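LOG
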Amino acid sequence: MSGRQDQDRNELADLYDRYGGKVYGYLFMMLASHAETEDAMQEVFCRMWERGTAGGAIENPVGYLFRAAHNEARSRTRRQWRRWLQLGAVQESACILEPVDAAANATEDREAVAHALSQLPAKQREVVALKAFQDLTFAEIAQALNISPNTAASRYRYALGKLENLLKKEGFGS
């Protein structure tokens, strides 16, 4: 292996160690499937390897990483919708469980939040996923989504307002 490939391998391993969990969390928030998320993670990091990180081939590897994750999630979501529509398999199912203890209540709370998040517009949901769950700054979110930091901040602010209203309708908060 050449020196450049060794350097790329080391930089990619460092990116994976530092950001792999955050990218996984972001992808899972968008794809809602562990299998799809794992496949998407592999695609994103393979793309990084093919592009090469050493020698400045990618000016901002972290921004590129989240942008690649964003693009991969959108692509997979579009393909999934096409498959569902072609198969006529868009069906909703509901499961009604009575909470029996604090763990069940916590699960119910998480499900309510997840349901509220699913009702947000995709652009707002992406910003919430990156800000609240991946702890990215608005500047990092802006770079990942190719928007301005002000747009990222306003989408986040609007999303929080909508979430608050949605959760109040479900009986959470005052």
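LOG (cont.) second protein
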Amino acid sequence: MEEIMYHSPDRLFWRTKRILLPVDGSEGTARAATVAYELAEITKGKVFIMHVINIGMVHQIATMSDADSLEVLTRYLANGERLLEGYKNAASEFELTVELVLEQGLPSNKIIEFARKERVDIIVMGSYGATGTGHSRLGSSTERVVRKAPCAVLVVK
């Protein structure tokens, strides 16, 4: 029987140093965060914790509630910053290097763009996010990221 190499440099998790964790506050994201933090702890990697404000949703809510789009966006930005800080605080238990990223746009597109630009090794995300509880399939953003990501994607159920 061949010897198993746990620390071979060509293995995915051994070379994983840049981990992207997209967050939306959902239960699926919380489970994915635990996996991302543990992976970063094992590999001594950096975790980019990213929240994307869906601008289409902001405009839709502003229109439906007869509110100013800028006012709605300001609330979303404040909520996004609180969300990111919460995930950063949770990561502190693992003594990790983290970077917070707050973006605006279509979440799947922004996740893919960021992964390309920052040369991310792996994206760790929940199977579905805050907008739905897909029991037998992936959420739409997760599916788009899996299909188009320039790196490995670990989907946490």
